[in-house]
Amino acid sequence: MSQTVAARDATAGLFGEAELRRIAQEALRQADGDEAEAVVVARTLELTRFANSAIHQNVSSREAQLQVRVVRGKRIAMLTTSDLGPEGIARVTRSASDLSRLVPENPEFGGLPDARPISTAPSAFVDRTAATTPLERARLAERICRPTRERSLVAAGYVSTTAQEIAIASTRGVWAYSPETRANAEAVCIGDAGSAWAERSSIDVARVDADGLASEAIAKCIAAQSPRDLDAGTYEVVLEPYAVNDIAAFLGLALTGVAVEEGRSFVGGKLGQRVTGDVTIREDPFDPECVPRPFDFEGQPSRAVTLIEQGVARAVVYDSATAHRTGAENTGHALPPNSFLSCTPMHGRVEAGDQTREELIRGVRRGVLVTRFHYTRWVHQLRTIVTGMTRDGTFAIEDGEIAYPVKNFRFTQSYHEALAGTLGVGRELHLFAASEFGGVSAIARRVPALRLAAFTFTGTTQY
What we know:
Blueprint: H1 2-6, H2 17-30, E1 35-51, E2 54-72, E3 75-81, H3 86-99, H4 127-130, H5 134-150, E4 154-170, E5 175-191, E6 194-202, H6 210-223, E7 233-239, H7 241-254, H8 257-261, E8 281-283, E9 305-309, E10 312-313, H9 320-326, E11 347-350, H10 357-362, E12 366-380, E13 385-398, E14 401-405, E15 409-414, H11 415-419, E16 422-425, E17 430-432, E18 444-447, E19 450-460
Parallel strand pairs: 7-12, 11-18
Antiparallel strand pairs: 1-2, 1-4, 2-3, 4-5, 5-6, 7-19, 8-9, 8-11, 9-10, 12-13, 13-14, 13-15, 15-19, 16-19, 17-18
């Protein structure tokens, strides 16, 4: 892998495995403690943004950071730098070493994890994505903007390409390296009295279907004009994958060992019991259609884990520290070290069903089609109650057909209780790969559309 990376075009903006190993090993060599860990993430993000159906901004940023953890007994100090030159490496390592003498002990700390064999995963790196030029991104953007102009609509959004390298090393013998790419396109299509949303993601820029994105957004935008009032209440719903992705993201925060340990997971004490309807949620780091990565941010091998199987809670994911505290087995799902969230599913998949979008809608006598959720926030994490709004394409369904557009709703709803009423699952999975965590592209997931028996809308808006 390292020889391949080293030979790639310099326009990809990659350091390469050998250089990241050198940086990490230099940090470990200078660390003064019982053990140490170095995490290096380098990323080139290039973005072409458009508004009013015309490109107005093109940016490119290349950034890299080194995060050093130094352990002295039960004391752990961690510092980060973006200066990867000799002085920057020496400075951050020396400071972390000095700090490790001063910080309070963590009596529950079990030490940095040992090196374990890492399985081979499908490559998440596509050369042409990393080498995409501004002109090529502009052409993708124009394939979205031109048809909106032709229909007297307005498009706003972006096309982006990312090349990222992740490297983890420790004095316990850990070494893990993975390059990966992501290409994303998002657009909102706006008319005089209504809007619609669409997005596409892939590790391969050639598979970002800009024409399909434009067609979806335009058709839905035309249908969304002049929305009517519809009373708030509990309705049967069909959720497009954009809305389902929001549900999967919130549930993923609860399907972790640390959430169970802290008493804020809806599956706590319920493994082996039914917690949703007939949906299956799986964490699969080896899914070639996602963004595969066979290790986590501690350099530990990531396991495929069935989290919910046909509505029955089966497992949660762990990082090394939580596994040590709770006596569980580490599944290899540590996030970059931080103070807020230690682990999460990073390659989630809500398994596909057997129905088309049209079939899901056809089964609804009276209900609502929701394109996406917006501004969602926790209300009660243990009960997975989330509040938010619908946006960019909300429609009444009557007798199995989309009847007319409606004004957006506000909602307060338990996500896992909504899934308890699963009536149908779409057969096509949509990839979402634009998620960020602390500036690191760490999370991706694939989800279908869903038909749910009941979703509670608590209020309406004026648009």
